[in-house]
Amino acid sequence: MSAVPVIERTSHFDFLKAPYSTWSAEELLSYFQAREGISYFTVVNEAEVAREKIDNILSNSFTLNEETYWFADHVDWLNNPSTDIEWSIMLHKFYYAVGLGAAFQETRDERYAEKWIELTSSWIDSVPVGFLSSDVTGRRIQNWVFAHYYFVSECQASSVTPEFYLVFLKSLHQQVSYLCQHLTPARNHRTLELYTIFLVAVVFPELKDADYWLRFSMEELVKNIQSDILDDGVHCELSTDYHHIVLRNFLAVRRLAAMNNIVFPQEFDERIKKALVFSVYVHKPDGTIPSLSDGDTGCFLSLLEQGYDLYGSEEMRYVATQGKFGIPPRSRSKAFPSGGYYIMRSGWGETSEDYRDERYLVFDCGDLGAGNHGHLDLLSFEMAAYGQSLIVDPGRYTYDESGEINWRVLFRGTSYHNTVLVDGKNQTLYEFHKEKFKIKGPQPGYELKAFISRPGFEYLHGIAKSHEYPITHERKILFLNGDYWIVCDILKARELHTYDQLFHLTAGAENKVSLSSDLGSLKVDAPNLVIIQPVQRSATVALEGGYISPAYGIKQAAPIVKFTQKAAECCFYTVLYPYKKERPSLSVSSLSVLKNDETCTPFIGQHMEIAIETAGRIYRDTIFIANEPGNYRTDNTEINGPVYYHRRSAEGHMLSRFDYSELETKDWLQGNRT
After folding, report:
1. For the segment 148-169, what is each residue's pLDDT rounded down to a tens digit?
2. What's the CATH number for 1-7+15-228?
3. Environment class of 78 (CB within 10 Å of its CB; exposed 0-12, middle 13-18, buried 19+)
């Protein structure tokens, strides 16, 4: 075990308030082991505290970010064995300290306490305060406090000596004092750092500066939540993962305050509740989040449980328990215009369908986001159905740019998203600058033209204009009868370009996708998903190899479906039909439509009939999509709006109908169930 650094005893310990500063080390440890009146809790990173990982740490073997390194004699804190700086960052964040504490609480095996003391003492003895960035300091302090919960407050490990405890308290004081002077200016790092200061102030009011830390952190946390949580509740970095990391920190602050009778202003609660509402809607039916813009996928339903405990929201409880308790959210689908996310959902499992089986799609039509986490993915989407993700955002994989392939650049680029790639270019200029790739050009212009939710019909229309090529990209998404989607992409230019419409499938689809065609359509069969396009003269379809990353450092092979056209102006009309068990029988045919008594090309307007046979029932869906304003005519219908849809039974009975031209202007941007 590493020797515990020595604190010189003069007349008092100057990092403590009186009278604690005059007590002996033995008296201080006994006091903190028996102290009452302060309530706190641990926040556990489940992936980092798995028992196998923790037991390996007993022999100095650390598995972090999917890389394992062993230290023969002692941890070399100042040298990184990996090419990825994130490995060293994870080492210094000390998530494993919480795992050691949890293992000790369960087993009372003193080896876990001894290893915590050894690693903590070694770090204090070897590493200067402020090594690495301030957010690393913040996370480490949090994990030290959580480890303290197990080893001192709850279980009182015999390995914790008075000498070590004094060194531990002094280092906490030094690190928090440093953090107050070196806060990250804004966003998610600042949130966790302020939470850290608040946490130490609450848990250790005996420290000399705790009163100041409490006032300072509370004032700054209120400012931070006002600046970072947008009016619609989405975090300003527009990353689904970072949104929930930040929300977890704000909730921890709020819970800790409630447990210790500390009152925050109402605005703090209102912003947390807005952030929770976004979490309600962005969670997929299987309980995970999409990994949009520098994030991992994962489950954050426990945060909605906390939201229910704090605010009594039955909607949060319903989603947290996946429909077992509570009340379904009032809206089926919802717009978050400040964040640029629009979510379509078939339901909440409140009728005959299971909660997990509902269909779901999240669409991106917004900014890159504050900071440097935005991906080049305008008009991209992720789609899930029947308990599975089917078309996915590939994630981030890594921040490391070393190696023969720059995976960071690939995963962040436009080609690794479910949008249209033009001439193989990113939507935004993204090039090498000094030491790494950076976004150098302006982001594309964007506009959300419509978001409509009606029984049996939902519709999105977004527009992107990149500064990297002279092309307007419009994407329209129709959600029909809660069953399936049609994705319409319109590309407008004056010169010839290559357009690739991309769909990234899951790792489960690897080597399980087939392509076929007939006179009327191009077909892609994937597990639980049929993709069909009506044949167009210049269109082709192909499969390409790709990857997805559900978590940092994990890369899984997954196929990419690519429809390609070479033209100046073109359209893609793609049917995405998910199914649970038996594949439905589908056919897509193009029908004639006239404008000014002339037959329309697909670029002007597409009239389709989709014949569906599923579960012993036959439907015929007729869809018209106009890409230019005007009056259109089919065999028996006059249409003067951009979208028209109806469903008939095999016997010809009308089952559902939607006519865009019948909507009032106020209905064009809304998402409430009616």
Report:
1. 999 999 999 999 999 999 999 9
2. 1.50.10.100
3. exposed
